[in-house]
Amino acid sequence: MKKLKRSARLVEMTQYLLYRPHSLIPLTTFAERYQAAKSSISEDLAIIKEVFEAEGFGELQTLAGAAGGVIFIPKYPKTASLELIRKLCGMLEQPERILPGEYLYMSDLLGKPAIMNEIGKIFATAFSDRDIDVVMTVETKGIPLAYATATFLNLPVVIVRRDSQVTEGSTVSINYVSGSNRRIQTMSLARRALKEQSKVLIIDDFMRAGGTIQGMMDLLQEFKATVQGVGVLVESEDVRERLVTDYVSLARLSVDSKARSLTAVPGNYFD
Q1: Mind listing the pLDDT tens digit of every residue in the chain (271 residues)?
Q2: Could you give the CA distance from residue 18 to residue 247 in angstroms, rounded to a whole number?
Q3: Alpha carbon distance 260, 257 (integer Å)
């Protein structure tokens, strides 16, 4: 790469860090990339670190030593997160979102990359201190949210299928009981999709009683994997008994189907 002026180098370094979250980048990488002395690179990183932390973009952690470098940890301040979720709650309270069976129409929101990226960054912040290997979700509506979260954690995504696919190869399938309607359903995961003893973060778009999430937990036992956290975009308050109790939710929703009204408030992440 050609030698850049310092102002241009700062911009390019910032871009480089933003696209490589949770990755250790040695100082030599920047020194060679910009044909600059390590002392100059260190000064540049100090400026970027100050701006990142002052503006709430995240943390720039420095590791000393021969194998050291810098790691960018994306962060979403709680105050800004709460403001975003309150706006999302306003969108969720639209009466036309109520579907038969007191389900909620959310596909339009899940299909907006700008919203999903913000939500993904909130989840990445909530679980930034966990030791995680992969982000898992179940098809299909949780996929955009899982990918957004994984982007900011710099992790791969594993997708659980409702039924096995020929193109997936050998699979592990289990039956589970839906927490909402108590029906027996099936989910499967390709054997090569997840290494044994992986540390997994489960992300889902909506949770009622938690049957689907509990099913994923049971499926993970077949891989000797451990659940490091559960993140839910919206949880229903209209349940008497929940199968999953340890989770992070960003919004809570109550549906009055007779009055055709919805009430949405920030979730337990903000308690």
Answers
A1: 778 899 999 999 999 999 999 999 999 999 999 999 999 999 999 999 999 999 999 999 998 877 779 999 999 999 999 999 999 999 999 989 988 876 789 999 999 999 999 999 999 999 999 999 999 999 989 999 999 999 999 999 999 998 777 778 899 999 988 766 678 889 999 999 999 999 999 999 999 999 999 999 999 999 999 999 999 999 999 888 889 999 999 999 998 877 788 999 999 999 9
A2: 28
A3: 5
Length of the chain: 271
Extract the tokens encoding 168. Answer: 């997936």
HSE, side-chain direction, 13 A CA sphere, residue 37? 3
